[in-house]
């Protein structure tokens, strides 16, 4: 071991406990907030009878979305017989599995009576897309587990992963579609009630999932010295060009259709997004989530690692903004909007003709907990299965 | 009378009041519905207030409320010929025949009560508080127990309706507890302008169906295909201010 490496290892060693400490602390904060919320009810959130879904559902959508990258990169590469991303397969599947697990957990704090969540299994109502989602998320999680098991066998049979991929890809398409249909099948919410919602969820999922994979690959490489392969960022960047192009195209097609056909209910909600209260978030979404990462990945900048990583991070952020917009646009404008509006739901707060939603520290605390849980599982997975035995391994621990 | 014995307010009513609120003869399989005559409605909120008391609705919530047509609560709209007009849309659960809330409920907590006039009811016991029904309802009439339910005066509940637990969704039941005792819903009984007509939508000779046919009753957001069992009768004459 050279002096330099030894020095770097020592430097890493000092970061390991801090990282685990941070994640554990975050999880403690999240759990404490959840207990506090359980004791006092959802009154401690910023939600109301008008805006009855908020950060928890937004995070759920986002987590389901980022779970796409992994399985699709792993399974897609397998199906087209590409060896390009072989080095990334394990990392990709760990990210997918962890994200979908975190997504399933993120539903619990949204429930008013989480202690009765098992009733969904005891007495499922089959017409509810929520029940379909429970099933497909379970299947998806199982596939991630099977994939990971196959990928970590010392002498794995060639072609086995390919067989799983034939199930994994349709499952991946379904998990995003069904999550979209939770929203898209509602006649009460014109902005969601479009056949394009499922394709849009798939494209956004691909963008954010790939973004997560790029960023995580970079972080793991920097921290552990793991070598994912020389052309990996260039290749992922190329993929990103197509994903963002598809996502941007679908978004444009949806907005153009609504704007040109001017169905009153639908247009009213769209106007909030384009020109109203949500406009800053929407145009930020377009700029940082579509224009900038597309420009980076479609140009020569793609060959520079730092730029691709930046594009991946921005694309992920853009998709998060998009999730906020999708939920809020429909919630802000109830169909029957006459005065005095919908009762807020808390004593002394009256009615809400023009509702707003600001997440409280409890909601943010629970999100911190979820993110920490996600980070911890990914860190442990990476340490065990992606970079075991490397010099940096002991250091991270 | 011992203090802890609760007498049903309906039993406690004088004979004449009970007669006034009686549904009368009903078929074996009624389809309960309502018509609201917006020509008669004076926007007084009496029905909304008695609803709160009848059903022990916690503070901050309303199952039934009176919306004002136009831009704001106290702002008349400008009608034809420059005249000012004011009218109201009393709004509670529409008890749809094709209820979007029921379809999305993951535990069947919201269901169509085929034994009681095909009303849309909620069994809070089964509710997990996901609020999917609130997202699915086009009318925004469902309310959620965000915190521990609070009441204006402790111990002043009528106790006719089970209290709903924290974290569950509730809404208008069409006063199911009264229907079972042969009485019309509270909002119908209490309306000082007699703007509400309650009855069986499958009874072609009943007052309800006749009123809807004569007046050309409309359903709220009919184009959404939810088939509400609440009809609105539009004013026949202008109500100028």
Describe this structure in words.
The complex is a heterodimer of chains A (397) and B (241). Chain A is an all-alpha fold and 397 residues long. Chain A is 71% helix and 1% strand. Chain A has 13 helices and two strands. Chain A has helices at residues 3-40, 55-79, 89-106, 119-122, 129-152, 160-184, 197-224, 232-261, 264-274, 279-298, 305-332, 361-386, 391-396; strands spanning 342-343, 351-352. In chain A, strand 1 (342-343) and strand 2 (351-352) form a beta hairpin. The longest helix of chain A is centred in the N-terminal third of the chain and has 38 residues, at 3-40. Chain A is globular, with a radius of gyration of 22 Å. Mean pLDDT of chain A is 90; it is low at 391-397. Chain B is an alpha+beta fold. Chain B is 20% helix and 16% strand. Chain B contains eight helices and eleven strands. In chain B, the strands form five sheets. Chain B has a three-stranded mixed beta sheet with strand order 10-1-11. In chain B, strands 2-5 form a two-stranded antiparallel sheet. In chain B, a hairpin with a 5-residue loop joins strand 6 and strand 7. At the A-B interface, helix 5 and strand 1 of A face strand 2, helix 4, helix 5 and strand 8 of B.
């Amino acid at each position: 071991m050279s002096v330099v490496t030894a020095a770097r290892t020592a430097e890493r060693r000092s970061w390991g406990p801090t990282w685990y400490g941070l994640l554990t602390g975050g999880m403690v904060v999240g759990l404490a907030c959840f207990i506090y919320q359980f004791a006092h009810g959802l009154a401690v959130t910023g939600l109301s009878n008008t805006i009855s879904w908020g950060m928890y559902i937004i995070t759920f959508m986002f987590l389901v979305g980022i779970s796409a990258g992994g399985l699709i990169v792993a399974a897609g590469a397998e199906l087209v017989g590409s060896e390009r991303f072989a080095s990334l397969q394990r990392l990709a599947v760990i990210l997918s599995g962890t994200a979908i697990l975190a997504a399933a957990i993120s539903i619990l704090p949204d429930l008013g009576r989480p202690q009765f969540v098992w009733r969904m299994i005891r007495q499922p109502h089959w017409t509810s897309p929520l029940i379909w989602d429970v099933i497909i998320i379970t299947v998806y999680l199982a596939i991630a587990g099977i994939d990971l098991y196959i990928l970590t066998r010392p002498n794995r049979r060639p072609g086995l992963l390919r067989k799983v991929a034939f199930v994994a890809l349709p499952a991946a398409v379904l998990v995003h579609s069904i999550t979209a249909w939770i929203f898209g099948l509602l006649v009460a919410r014109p902005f969601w009630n479009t056949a394009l919602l499922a394709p849009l969820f798939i494209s956004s999922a691909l963008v954010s999932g790939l973004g997560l994979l790029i960023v995580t690959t970079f972080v793991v490489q920097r921290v552990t010295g793991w070598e994912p392969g020389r052309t990996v960022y260039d290749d992922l960047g190329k993929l990103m060009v197509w994903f963002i192009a598809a996502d941007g195209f679908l978004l444009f097609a949806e907005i153009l259709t609504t704007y040109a056909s001017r169905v009153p209910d639908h247009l009213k909600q769209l106007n909030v997004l384009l020109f109203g209260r949500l406009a800053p978030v929407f145009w930020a979404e377009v700029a940082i989530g579509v224009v900038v990462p597309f420009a980076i990945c479609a140009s020569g900048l793609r060959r520079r690692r730092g730029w691709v990583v930046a594009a991946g991070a921005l694309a992920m952020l853009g998709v998060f903004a998009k999730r906020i917009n999708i939920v809020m646009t429909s919630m802000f404008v109830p169909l029957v909007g006459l005065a005095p509006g919908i009762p807020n739901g808390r004593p002394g707060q009256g009615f809400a003709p023009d509702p707003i939603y600001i997440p409280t520290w409890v909601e943010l605390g629970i999100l911190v907990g979820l993110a920490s849980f996600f980070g911890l599982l990914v860190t442990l997975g990476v340490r065990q299965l992606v970079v075991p035995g490397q010099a940096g391994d002991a250091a991270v621990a | 009378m011992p203090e802890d014995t609760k007498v049903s307010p309906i039993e406690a009513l004088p004979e004449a009041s009970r007669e006034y609120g009686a549904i009368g003869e009903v078929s074996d399989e009624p389809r309960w519905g309502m018509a609201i005559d917006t020509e008669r409605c004076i926007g007084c909120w009496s029905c909304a207030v008695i609803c709160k008391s009848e059903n022990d609705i916690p503070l901050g919530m309303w199952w039934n409320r009176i919306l004002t047509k136009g831009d704001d609560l106290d702002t008349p709209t400008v009608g034809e010929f420059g005249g000012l007009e004011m009218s109201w849309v009393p709004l509670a659960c529409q008890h749809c025949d094709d209820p979007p809330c029921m379809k999305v409920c993951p535990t069947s907590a919201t269901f169509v009560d085929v034994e009681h006039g095909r009303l849309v009811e909620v069994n809070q016991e089964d509710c997990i508080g996901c609020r999917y029904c609130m997202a699915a309802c086009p009318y925004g009439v469902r309310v959620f127990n965000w915190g521990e339910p609070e009441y204006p005066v402790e111990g002043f509940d009528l106790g006719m309706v089970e209290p709903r637990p924290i974290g569950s969704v509730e809404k208008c039941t069409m006063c199911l507890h009264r229907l079972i005792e042969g009485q019309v819903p509270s909002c119908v009984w209490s309306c000082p302008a007699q703007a509400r007509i309650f009855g069986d939508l499958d009874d072609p000779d009943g007052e309800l169906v006749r009123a809807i046919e004569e007046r050309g009753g409309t359903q709220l957001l009919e184009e959404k295909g939810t088939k509400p069992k609440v009809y609105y009768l539009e004013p026949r004459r202008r109500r100028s201010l």
